[in-house]
Design goal:
The chain has helices at 25-32, 37-43, 48-55, 57-70, 92-101, and strands at 14-15, 21-22, 74-80, 86-91, 115-117, 130-136, 139-144, 148-152, 159-162, 175-180, 185-193, 199-205, 210-214, 226-228, 231-236, 251-256, 261-267, 279-284, 288-295, 300-306, 315-322, 326-332, 337-342, 347-351, 356-361, 369-375. It is globular. The protein has two domains: 14-66, no CATH class; 71-375, 6 Propeller (Neuraminidase), CATH 2.120.10. The protein has a four-stranded antiparallel sheet. A hairpin with a 4-residue loop joins strand 22 and strand 23 (337-342). Helix content is 12%, strand content 39%. By secondary structure, it is mainly beta. It is built from five helices and 26 strands.
Length: 385
C-alpha cells in the first residue's frame, strides 16, 4: 500500500483516554472491506484517516474483491425504457427477507427497505432509450439514446462517457462489457460500422481510453454478451438458406477478454428441435452458464445448466417453468431462487425448493423493464480503480 496513505499501524489494541479501544489499521481495513459501498461513502466523513484509507485504490480493490467473491452488497438494478424512464435498485438480501416474511401469494407492488432511485447524466432527456451493455465489479456499461456509451457506478453516481468507436452511426449489433483480470482493465466490445462502412468488432480498453479493431467474427445473432469466467458469451444464431433460424447449428460463442479471441464454445442442448422458439443465456450460482428456452406452443420455459464449463455433454435440465409469459431468468442465486423477467414488465421469483412463484414487481403500466445485477463498490468509471 502507498506510504502515508493508510493509517500508521499499531501492533496491539491500545485503549484511548476515554477507555475506548483503538483497533490497529489491519483490523479496521478488514472490517470496512465488508461494508456496503454506499455506507463507505458516509464512513469517509468520520475522520481524515478513514477518508484516506477508504479512498486508497488498494482498499477499493480489496472491498470490490470481497463483494464480488461473496456476492455481498448485491443489488438488482431496474430500468424502464422510453417515456416513463426511471431507474431503481433494490438490495437483494432485503428483497429476499421481505418476501420470506410476507406470506401473501400475490404481491401487486413491492416496497422493500433499501430501495433506491438513481439518476443518469442524460444529455438528451427527450429520448431516454437505455441499453444495458453489461455489469462488472460495480460498474454498469450503458448505451444511451442510440448515441453514446457510458460507464457508470450506481453506488457513487460517478460516470465516464466513452467516445464513439468510429465516425459512422454507432448502432451496435452485439456488445458486451467486462473486467480483464490479466491486465487489470475494463473492456467494452461492440460490433458496428467502421470508417469504411464495413461491420467490424471494436474493443475499448479503459486504460488506453481508445478503441481498436479485433478480428475473428463479424456477426452474432444475439445482442448483449454474458460475462462469466473472464469471457463474454453470446448465442451465435445460425440461419438456413431460406433465412430461417437453424436451432441445431446455433452455438454459444465466447470472447476471451484477456486473449481477445473469439471461439465457438459449445452447441446448445437439443431442446428446440427444428424450430427456434427463443433462447437466452444466464448465470447459475455465480459460476455456471445456463440457457433458457421458450416454448410458446406449450407455454413453458426450460432452463438448462452447463455443469462443467465448455463441456457440451454436461448440459443438465434444471427446471421447466410452466404457464408463465416468461422472458428470461435475471438471476439464479446460491439458494436456488430464480428471478424471472416477464415480457409485460413484471418480475417474479421462483423458489426451486418450494416449487412456487412469488410476484416481486408489477408496474402500474405496461412497461418494458431492463434488469442488471451489480455489487456496491467504489470503483471509479474513469480509472477502474
Amino acid at each position: 500500500m502507498a506510504d502515508g496513505v493508510l493509517l500508521e499501524r499499531e501492533t496491539q489494541l491500545v485503549p484511548s483516554d476515554d477507555g475506548a479501544c483503538i483497533f490497529n489499521t489491519d483490523i479496521i481495513l478488514e472490517i470496512l472491506s465488508w461494508v456496503p459501498g454506499k455506507s463507505l461513502l458516509r464512513c469517509r466523513r468520520v475522520c481524515k484517516s478513514w477518508c484516506s484509507l477508504i479512498s486508497d485504490p488498494n482498499f477499493v480493490r480489496k472491498q470490490c474483491s470481497q463483494a464480488v467473491r461473496h456476492s455481498t452488497n448485491l443489488r438488482l438494478l431496474m430500468f424502464t425504457n422510453r417515456w416513463h424512464f426511471l431507474i431503481k435498485s433494490i438490495d437483494y438480501e432485503s428483497l429476499l427477507s421481505f418476501l420470506t416474511k410476507n406470506k401473501h401469494e400475490n404481491i401487486s407492488r413491492v416496497v422493500v427497505p433499501r430501495c433506491r432511485r438513481h439518476k443518469l447524466p442524460l444529455t438528451q432527456p427527450d429520448n431516454r432509450n437505455v441499453w444495458i451493455m453489461g455489469s462488472s465489479n460495480g460498474l454498469v456499461c450503458l448505451f444511451l439514446n442510440c448515441h453514446y456509451t457510458l460507464l457508470w457506478n450506481p453506488c457513487t453516481g460517478n460516470s465516464k462517457k466513452i467516445p464513439k468507436p468510429s465516425p459512422e452511426a454507432f448502432l451496435p449489433a452485439f456488445y458486451g462489457f467486462g473486467y480483464d483480470s490479466a491486465t487489470d482493465d475494463y473492456k467494452v466490445i461492440c460490433n458496428c460500422l467502421s470508417a469504411d462502412r464495413t461491420n467490424e468488432v471494436f474493443v475499448f480498453t479503459l486504460k488506453t481510453g481508445s478503441w481498436r479493431i479485433v478480428e475473428g467474427i463479424d456477426h452474432i445473432g444475439s445482442d448483449r454478451g454474458l460475462l462469466l469466467n473472464g469471457a463474454l458469451h453470446w448465442l451465435n444464431i445460425k440461419r438456413r438458406a431460406d433465412g430461417s433460424i437453424d436451432p441445431k447449428s446455433t452455438t454459444i460463442t465466447s470472447f476471451d477478454l484477456a486473449k481477445e479471441k473469439f471461439q465457438e464454445l459449445v452447441s446448445l442442448p437439443n431442446v428446440l428441435g427444428d424450430i427456434f422458439l427463443g433462447a437466452d443465456l444466464g448465470v447459475y450460482k455465480s459460476s455456471h452458464l445456463l440457457c433458457s428456452f421458450d416454448n410458446f406452443r406449450f407455454g413453458n420455459t426450460e432452463i438448462w445448466v452447463m455443469m462443467e464449463y465448455g463441456v457440451e455433454q454436461s448440459w443438465t435440465k434444471l427446471i421447466v417453468l410452466k404457464d408463465q409469459d416468461l422472458s428470461h431468468p435475471v438471476y439464479v442465486s446460491e439458494d436456488d431462487k430464480v428471478f424471472i423477467g416477464l415480457r409485460q414488465g413484471d418480475l417474479k421469483l421462483y423458489d426451486l425448493k418450494a416449487n412456487r412463484y412469488r410476484s416481486v414487481l408489477k408496474p402500474k403500466k405496461q412497461l418494458r423493464l431492463a434488469f442488471a445485477l451489480y455489487v456496491e463498490t467504489l470503483v471509479s468509471p474513469a480509472t477502474g480503480k
